[in-house]
Amino acid sequence: MSTLPKVAWIGLGIMGSPMSENLVKAGYDVTGHTLERDKLDRLAAAGGTAAASVAEAVRDADVIVTMVPASPQVEAVAYGPDGILENARRGALLIDMSSITPQTSVDLAAAAKDKGIRVLDAPVSGGEAGAIEAVLSIMVGGDQADFDEAKPLFEALGKTIVRCGPHGSGQTVKAANQLIVAVNIQACAEAVVFLEKSGVDLAAALDVLGGGLAGSTVLARKKDNFLNRDFRPGFRIDLHHKDMGIVTDAARTVGAVLPVGAVVAQLVADLRAQGDGGLDHSALLRAVERLSGAQV
Question: Has the keyword NADP been applied to this entry (predicted)?
Fold first, then answer.
């Protein structure tokens, strides 16, 4: 019998499916629930167990992981008679790995405490590739003892795992991460359009830029997207639009001014309004091309 905790995994999307499968590979007993039947079948094929409801998935779990799109979905699976808080056992550890507002995480931790359930907010960075390769960065908010307990599970999912402070801190750091990523993608997109309009060999230019101070994880991960105009979603514009709303609202609350971030947030919103919300966030290139007169 395995001595590892039993895991319930709620949300089997682009990130949740490979992450839950990595836990199965690491020897965890994983029971998952999501709304899409094919995702449940995929988990079962990988060695996990499919559950028909949130309540069924969490009932016997030691650890419950949620990986859903935004705050409303977290609240939907956490609260109510069929939700996590009403059906998980006392003493269970709830790890929310979604990207949501810091206040939602703080409120969830308070509500869960009344039920005897511990909570960590643990959003991730690294995109689909990082989820598949189990090299995600995981930024965690919550109590130190709960973080220490969860550390082995996190190590099956990522490489950079840091407790950033109390409840909500992980989400605050994730918001900052999304600000940096969006601005970086926008800068790369502008450089690509500039280089192409100048007649430079784009592949060669991106190679040399990647080896200098302009190099970044964003450029390394998204270079082929730019070169091939491949915008299949690894992280959708719709989700980055949501995240830019989180960071701009949180910054306003604490009195931080984000002039470049505000502009990029509007460019992300514009791209979404143009019907590109389902594309990868590297599709910010399309917005720059439109502004530069291209028909895309």
Answer: no
Count of residues for the chain?
A: 296
Residue 174 is a catalytic residue: yes
Local structure of residue 70 (DSSP, 8 states): S
**Exposure of 183 in the CB half-sphere (CA atoms within 13 A):** 13
Q: CA-CA-CA-CA torsion for 9, 12, 16, 22, nearest 10 degrees?
A: 70
Residue 292: partners with Cβ closer than 8 Å, 6 or more residues away: 193, 197
What pLDDT digit, counting tens, does each position of 50-75 carry? 999 999 999 999 999 999 999 999 99
Strands 136-141 and 158-165, by their bridges, are: parallel
**Single pTM value for the model:** 0.92
The one-letter amino acid code at 290 reads R
- Other Cβ atoms within 10 Å of 293 Cβ, number: 8
What is the rounded CA–CA span in Å between residue 78 and residue 96? 10
**pLDDT, tens digit, for every residue of 78-112?**
999 999 999 999 999 999 999 999 999 999 999 99
Q: What is the CA radius of gyration of the chain?
A: 20
Sign of CA dihedral 10, 16, 18, 20: negative
Half-sphere exposure at residue 43, Cβ-oriented, CA atoms within 13 angstroms = 32
- The one catalytic residue among 174, 222, 223, 242: 174
CA 268 remoteness from chain centre: 17
